[in-house]
Protein: Peroxiredoxin
Organism: Flavobacterium lacus
Amino acid sequence: MKKILVLLITASLFVACNKLDENEFIVSGTVEGIADGKLAILETLDENGMGVKPTDTAIIINGKFEFKGTTNEPELRFIQIDSVQGKLVFVLENGEINIKAFKDSINKSIIGGSYNNEQFAIYNKDQNAIQKKIADFRTLNKEKMELAMQTNDSMTMNSLRDNFVKLNDELKDYNIKFAESNPKAFISVLMIQNMLMQPDADFEKLQKTFNNLDKSVKDTKPGKSVGELISNRSSAEVGKAAPEFSAPNPEGKIVSLKESLGKVTIIDFWASWCAPCRKENPNVVALYNELHDKGLNIIGVSLEKEGDSQKWKDAILADKLTWPQVSNLQYWSDPIAKKYNVQSIPATFILDASGKIVAKDLRGDELKAKVIELLGS
């Protein structure tokens, strides 16, 4: 009896000593076939959300690794293992997270132990099943589509396209239903964020789905970003007054939209590093040279990277851009781009004399026709 009591007391002490604080996390991982001394690297998205950067490392011993720490909210993280191709994606949150990694197929690793990672696993399983249906459909019908295109068989082409669209709609519908059914899941807001960036996004449906998420999810960094994106999207739509902004020009002088307005104004989002933008610039230059005297103004907003001021100036000179130019040198974090919900460049907003947005993302002949129409009204 005494031995049993001693064992129970010892066990309870062990549990007490290893109990995590509610504001702590422990990531316990296993991976077979990796030599001792190799590293597991914990990574996070960089400030621009375009790449990753390391935040911690753990030495793999006997096929095991561990990360400990604290976090204020759930966030998407990555683990890179030495000599393993690809990255393991998971949700870092306080609590115990268990990872069983497979070095030859890192994307099939098993992650669990916490609410959001359990939800992430369910989401990935269901989504992967739909993605497989789409991939199988492509493979099975590739030759049929090629033959239909060669023989101009429009009936077969339309039928295949319709079925392909239905499969893609199934994936979109699943994403929405998942978020509606799991308003407290962190993956729900990440999914909405991703869908909002698609060209064919159903904005109203996604806005409604986001509004129904739990406050704890809306208060995360991605949640706040989506909230801001929705707010900006609503304020920078056709028919709305163009949001005011100001930023430094190449000489460091602050230039505002208000002082740049003409009878017709184009807000042109571009960058020196953007090949499609540079290709389009000669068309914009020709349009400006032809119609500026009749009331066309342009203000360029460049999404330059920090430290690339000279590249920006060189591009302005090389492309002969003689209208006002501004940049905050903050790349995709540019506050003006966020205010106008710019997800890709080149992007254009066409304003009338009152500063109201009357059209978006027109180029070439369409842009010229719209400007001439507005100048003549």
Observations:
- The first helix runs from residue 2 to 18.
- The first strand starts at residue 25 and ends at 31.
- The chain is about 45% helix and 20% strand.
- The CA atoms of residues 85 and 105 lie 8 Å apart.
